[in-house]
UniProtKB/TrEMBL annotation:
This is Transposase. It comes from the Bacteria.
Amino acid sequence: MLQNQQSMVFSPYIDIYDLVVPKDNLLRKINDLIDFSFVYNELKDNGRY
């Protein structure tokens, strides 16, 4: 199965995100302020191999 990714593979449409989602959008701000990398450690042992 998928292992912890060492690098992000972005969609070729990532530029559309910048055009469609306003700079002052709440979810964009949350994404910029919070480092969600801890999720990998929290979900490491979820019964999958």
